[in-house]
């Protein structure tokens, strides 16, 4: 079950429609957290967690902005309960960042040369056949 903070009022209308999917993603998150990480690099152990976090936020974003199946009250409730990442969703609204994988990929302080992450470089500008993998989240290219 999705962690919902104790509040005096119940979740808004429509919660029962999205709760099963969020519960499923929460179960996947628990599996990823408890999965053995023998033989993996330290950063590789966090990649599944970043991926599931992205999926939860994208699910809420798509329901509100793309499909328009949930109302503003439920959308705000999900963000206040930290079910979706409001900062990541805010970046998805900007042009050029529609497919952003995580916020660390656009922070210059986390890279070697104070630039954007390698996964933000368009695939046409990379060498042919070269597989690019983000160190932070394992993304293979989210620039579009």
Automatic annotation (TrEMBL):
The keyword Transmembrane helix is annotated on this UniProt entry: no
Location (main, coarse): nucleus
GO cellular component: spliceosomal complex
Alphabetic keyword roster: Nucleus
Pfam families tied to this protein: BUD31
Entry keyword RNA-binding: no
GO biological process: mRNA splicing, via spliceosome
Compartment annotation: Nucleus
Protein family: Belongs to the BUD31 (G10) family.
Name of the protein in its database record: Protein BUD31 homolog
Organism of provenance: Rotaria sordida
